[in-house]
Design a protein that fits this description.
With about 375 residues, this protein is of the alpha+beta class. It contains 11 helices and 18 strands. It is about 25% helix and about 20% strand. The radius of gyration is 21 Å and the shape is globular.
Length: about 375
């Protein structure tokens, strides 16, 4: 069967219109087919546009496994036969990296983009290189650009399904998900068992030496930080909003790793993931005063208020905690700028979706 993408008007679109006329309460299906035309002359630009931004769509051949319409329910089923799936499923491609962290010259420190089972995720080569460590940063991209993994307390079954898909994509399938009830604090939880999989623990950072368990933080502008020691014996996940940054949650987490597990701080690798960057993160004077680090506050004549460099603030704190600067990876990706990749509370408000940053030790 040949059909067009959701913006076309071919036989697939006519079929949807006919079905909608027959079922008045039914909403149109969202059918999003990612074009993989990498063989064209401008393949870098076309690949980035189609793969990350959903642009350059055109007529494609796709196998439709099933189309189900249920009155009053938005139902999606995807069964798409993509060309060369094995080639693109786990691609970490320099073409994409050129568009992802454009402000850094060190490509070894850039977050890599991977596409696994139609889920787009980010990973850090610095953590990938540690034996026995699994990790990943989610995006809003899957078959469509509304792939949300939160909020934590949501009873929406689609969110639970999305989480299971994401964990499988980062090679943590079926692992217990140790939950935090994030409250913008400096509370750190030592996960010595999996009880947090049943009831979320209040706090904004977690550490563990458990194998086969997921540490995760949920963000939509705040700073996610993932940490592992070079021998793969311990991991940590940190949620650092401006309040957590002001409360020094990152260095306090490092101190807990050192104190609880006897791991030297200079054996730790830290990755600061996508966040609301200094280009967009406007704050009030009370926030600037609370951070107590003038280097991280940027003022420009064209800005009505100061901006906070969240990444730099947390990087400087981690360095003071004993992690060498060259063992701290900082992503330049801005959640507010990159609406094609991320949710942003500042941009979308309280109904914004959420991303997850996860890390764990292989069992």
């Amino acid at each position: 069967m040949k059909t067009c993408c959701s913006h076309g008007c071919g036989p697939g679109q006519r079929l949807l219109e006919q079905m909608q006329r027959r079922l008045p309460g039914w909403q149109p299906l969202h059918l999003d087919v990612f074009p993989l035309h990498t063989g064209c002359p401008a393949r870098a630009q076309r690949f980035e546009s189609g793969f990350l931004c959903g642009e350059a769509r055109g007529e494609v051949d796709c196998g439709i496994g099933a189309v189900v319409a249920v009155p009053g329910f938005d139902f999606r089923i995807y069964s798409i036969d993509e060309a060369w799936p094995e080639l693109f499923q786990r691609l970490a491609n320099a073409i994409i990296l050129d568009h992802v962290d454009t402000d850094t010259d060190d490509h070894d420190c850039m977050l890599q983009v991977n596409r696994v089972a139609q889920v787009t995720l980010l990973s850090s080569p610095a953590l990938t290189a540690i034996p026995g460590i699994a990790h990943g940063f989610s995006t809003r991209r899957a078959e469509h650009n509304q792939f949300t993994l939160g909020p934590t307390g949501s009873e929406n079954p689609a969110i639970q399904i999305n989480r299971a898909r994401f964990l499988a994509a980062v090679e943590m399938p079926g692992w217990p998900f140790l939950r935090l009830k994030q409250v913008h604090s400096d509370v750190i939880r030592d996960m010595t068992d999996t009880s947090a999989a049943n009831e979320a623990f209040e706090g904004d950072a977690a550490i563990t030496q458990l194998g086969g368990a997921v540490l995760a933080v949920q963000t939509a502008d705040c700073v996610p930080i993932l940490i592992a020691d070079v021998k793969g014996h311990a991991v940590a996940a940190i949620h650092a909003g401006w309040r957590g940054t002001a409360a020094q949650i990152a260095p306090k987490t490092v101190a807990r790793l050192v104190g609880n597990y006897g791991i030297p701080a200079d054996d730790l690798i830290a990755v600061i993931g996508p966040h609301n960057a200094v280009c967009c993160y406007e704050v009030g004077e009370e926030v600037a005063d609370a951070i107590r680090d003038p280097v991280t506050i940027v003022r420009k004549t064209e800005w009505a208020r100061p901006h906070l460099n969240q990444a730099l603030a947390n990087q400087r704190q981690l360095i003071r905690a004993g992690i060498p600067e060259d063992q701290i990876v900082v992503s330049n990706l801005c959640t507010q700028c990159r609406s094609d990749l991320f949710y942003s509370y500042r941009r979308e408000g309280k109904n914004a979706g959420r991303m997850l940053s996860v890390i764990g030790i292989l069992p």
